[in-house]
Design brief:
The structure holds two protein chains of two kinds. In chain A, 70% of the residues lie in helices and 0% in strands. In chain A, helix 1 packs antiparallel against helix 2, helix 1 runs parallel beside helix 3 and helix 5 crosses helix 6. By secondary structure, chain A is mostly helical. The N terminus of chain A is likely disordered. The N and C termini of chain B lie far apart (67 Å). About 30% of the residues of chain B have low confidence. The chains are: A mainly alpha, B alpha+beta. At the A-B interface, helix 1, helix 2, helix 5 and helix 7 of A face helix 1, strand 1 and helix 3 of B.
């Protein structure tokens, strides 16, 4: 059965999407929260991306990479929007921060999006520089300098 | 690379990730599509402070019983995110609404809406786009019949929003009660999709 867009809307397809959603949701939101420093915005961004995937489900051969790219692009858009409005703290809500973690949060908040993304994808997700470049849609050679600048900035600030 | 700084960053990021509260319902145009059992971390533990031993045992057993249905995680990031998380709260399992088509292959103006149903015979549905031939500036309240896979009228749907992508569909007599189809029209053979 197909609708006006030629997209099959059958029960099996819906179940497949449900399984995909269940498998991807947790990791996507947590990663987006680290990229944005905001759990609320991360949930919004990820669910918006899932909606896009849902609408194109039958056309996507590999929904996982598409979702990854959609989430990262939206995170970048949010970061740009913040930059235009002026820097505002979007720190994750913390109730039990320890003294030595607060500086890291401040320092990550101060990084440009690409540098912050490189740090998160490197040290949280565990991606290689090549994988980070691919995820962000940027040249491979750009990741190393981003990481160096970010780590230098953090290291100096923590001394 | 400073291994201490690298370690601190990894530790910090994992800890932050573990505390993120994940919203677990997906909506399309305001209609719930999917809800999964919440993945609960330390910040969501809001249970009363004085839970007795017996209650704890019952809750723990409930958690064990439902754990296999919990949200699965496929990414390395998520797998790592459990590091440092406090034990999850054994909240009641939320039934997972399943997206279904209308019964008997029923179609609305040639389309197969994706629906959830909480009441027998009543379906909350979505379609990607309202049929072009029937599109107006605002189709809220627009009604039309549905036909089953033998082209017999089996009920009807009402548009809930301006672009017609959210529908409530009623089967059989319920559609008559909603003044979507007449009692005499219900069950009639209607070749071809309904026309707007």
């Amino acid at each position: 059965m197909r609708n006006v867009n030629g997209r099959a809307t059958n029960v099996t397809s819906a179940h497949d999407f449900t399984d995909f959603y269940k498998a991807e949701l947790d990791g996507q939101v947590r990663r987006a929260a680290l990229l944005l420093g905001s759990a609320d915005q991360a949930n919004d961004v990820v669910h918006d991306a899932f909606t896009e995937v849902f609408r194109r489900w039958e056309q996507l051969d590999e929904p996982g990479p598409y979702l990854n790219r959609a989430v990262l692009n939206r995170c970048r858009d949010v970061a740009r929007s913040r930059a235009r409005r002026g820097r505002v703290s979007h720190r994750l809500v913390r109730t039990d921060a320890t003294w030595n973690e607060e500086p890291i949060a401040d320092l990550l908040d101060g990084l440009p999006f690409n540098q912050r993304a490189a740090v998160v994808l490197k040290f949280y997700v565990g991606l290689s520089n090549l994988e980070i470049a691919d995820s962000l849609g940027r040249p491979p050679g750009s990741v190393g300098p981003w990481l160096n600048r970010a780590l230098t900035h953090i290291r100096k600030a923590m001394q | 690379m400073n291994s201490t700084l690298e370690h601190e960053l990894t530790h910090y990021l994992r800890g932050e990730a573990a505390r993120v509260e994940v919203r677990d319902n997906l909506e399309l145009d305001g209609v719930p599509l999917i809800r999964v059992e919440p993945t609960v971390t330390g910040t969501r533990w809001k249970g009363p402070a004085l839970i007795g031993v017996a209650a704890s045992v019952v809750l723990f057993l409930g958690l064990v019983a439902t754990r296999h249905d919990a949200t699965e995680v496929s990414t390395p990031a998520a797998a790592q995110s459990d590091v440092g998380a406090t034990p999850v709260s054994p909240e009641p399992t939320t039934p997972l609404p399943v997206l279904v088509e209308l019964p008997d292959g029923a179609t609305f103006m040639g389309l197969s809406p994706l629906c959830t149903t909480a009441i027998e015979g009543i379906y909350d549905c979505t379609i990607d786009e309202f049929p072009v031939g029937a599109r107006a500036a605002d189709v809220t309240g627009y009604v039309n019949y549905i036909v089953d896979d033998t082209s017999h009228v089996s009920g009807g749907c009402r548009a809930l929003n301006a672009d017609g992508t959210r529908l409530t569909c009623y089967l059989g007599q319920l559609a008559v009660d909603q003044d979507i189809v007449s009692a005499g029209f219900l069950g009639d053979w209607v070749p071809g999709p309904a026309q707007g």
